[in-house]
Amino acid sequence: MKNTKEKEKNFIDEITTEIKKANKLSEVLKPETFAIPNGWADEIVRQLKKGKSGTSLKTSQLRKIFAEIKDICDKKIKGLSEDNTELYLLYPKLAYAKGRNLLPKDFYNLLVACLDKLKNSTDKEDFKAFEEFMTAIVAYNKQYE
């Protein structure tokens, strides 16, 4: 049986695995799972603040990523864009941030798993779920500043 520290260490990886296994992002990212206290978003932020992977996520970097994700999701939800160019361009931006140690590896893997689900999706619910998930992460991040 894993002790608490080992369980915390693998929490973001466990969520990433669940997202990869799901058929759709909206099937796995549900507010009752990620938005509640001690839910996924809260636990992700706590883990990121501890800097377990050697890199802690700075608020400015999180907000920068969130602004781009929100813009993309808003356009998809409102039906203003069917083009995925902006979504595809997020991959190298995230890789660059990870390479400069501005983005923890486990959080990078989580975001890439979400983008992989979105790149082939036309379902507005998937984009809405991802935007709400990221909003919850930003909000919990503010709590722990």
Automatic annotation (TrEMBL):
Keywords noted in UniProt: Antiviral defense, RNA-binding
Signal peptide span: none
Pfam families: Csm2_III-A (PF03750)
Domain of life: Bacteria
MF terms in GO: RNA binding
Any single biological process term in GO: defense response to virus
Family: Belongs to the CRISPR-associated Csm2 family.
Database matches in NCBIfam families: cas_TM1810_Csm2 (TIGR01870)
Function statement: This subunit may be involved in monitoring complementarity of crRNA and target RNA.
Stated name of the protein: CRISPR system Cms protein Csm2
Organism: Hydrogenothermus marinus
Classification of source organism: Bacteria, Pseudomonadati, Aquificota, Aquificia, Aquificales
